[in-house]
Amino acid sequence: MALFMALAAVPIIFSVGAGVDYSTANMAKTKLQAVADAAALAAVDHTEISDTAANAQATATTVFNTEVANLRNVTVTGLNVTVTDSNTGRTSVVSYTATKTNAFMSLMGLPTTAISGSATAQAGLSVNINFYLLLDNSPSMNIAATSAGIQTMVNNTAAQGGCAFACHETNPAADNLGNPGGVDNYTLAKNLNVVTRIQNLASATQSLMTTAAATEGSNTSQYQMAIYTFANNGLSTIQTLTSDLTTAKTAAANINVLQVYKNNWLTSTNNNSDMDTNFETAMSQISTIMPNPGLGTPASTPQEVLFIVSDGVDDETNSSSCSKTLSGSNRCQQPFNTTWCTTVKNRGIQIAVLYTEYLPLPTNSWYNNWISPFQNQIGPNLESCASPGMFFSVTTDGDITAAMQALFAQAIATARLTN
Which domain range does residue 351 map to? Predict the structure, then answer.
């Protein structure tokens, strides 16, 4: 019996020893897996996500090797770290092979136990975007911002037949407006405490700069802003492209309606028949200013977004592309021409459009003759100009600030990497 017990004890001892070695190997794998997890996550954390894939890969490798050095009786025989950026974000994969030294099984010719595993981490990439704001400051954008304000302006401009537009003139006396003190409608609106659409646009743009600064701080992206107004024959620069959004916010306070000399006259020497909204020239000029976009990742150039806010009515000299509503005039009024929108989008630049709806004025003969025939085309034209999902509209009494914020949020949400 003693002999049989001695013979039986040998496999029992080795079985127990194998169990101990297996258990310690599992513990070693658990620790290695935790190290691999930490390394994979290091490549996509809030710091590395704004760096290049190559640098993130180097960081993940360093994290793995540093932590493994603290593990006893473990030898890493193979390590593969890959970090890739795609249209869905960043993916890091850490795979490893290793051996754990055996205490008991080495007596049976098995000095080590093989261990292998992998860890994967994913995160959305930070996307750097340049925004170019193209804001309509033509006289029609200086209508009273609310129904009550419109009625107030109409009630106080009886000599003009009731006018809701706060047109800005340097020589209002020439038009015999009949306003108290001989002031223009712009000053009259201020005196009556009537807030105009262009005032709301200026404050909404300032609020947008604050939101952009807060958003880029929370998601490690960088947003640069440029602000232009358009009227008459092209662009007026409010702020060139800058990453200093505080400076851009200050500059946005200068957004104002186009000032003219008097009715039909842009200046005292330029009778342009109030053709003060040239979309084609503004779009061609800003297309030249905007560079070709990149992926927006840290290793690439920024994405580009053209952000248009307008009531959508072209008012310029007649051309071959004009769909005039009245004959016998060199003046063209028509819905926004989308030709340049196609050109810009074909360059890979996204277009976001906020339509500040052109208010129907059925008591106004000019509106009835010129604008009413194409009123129902204004919104659809602007929507076709916008990239998919990047069109919003706001009516009279609507909140321009909220609409611009929503459009900005949509723009950064749909910012995507392209090959």
Answer: 129-143+196-413
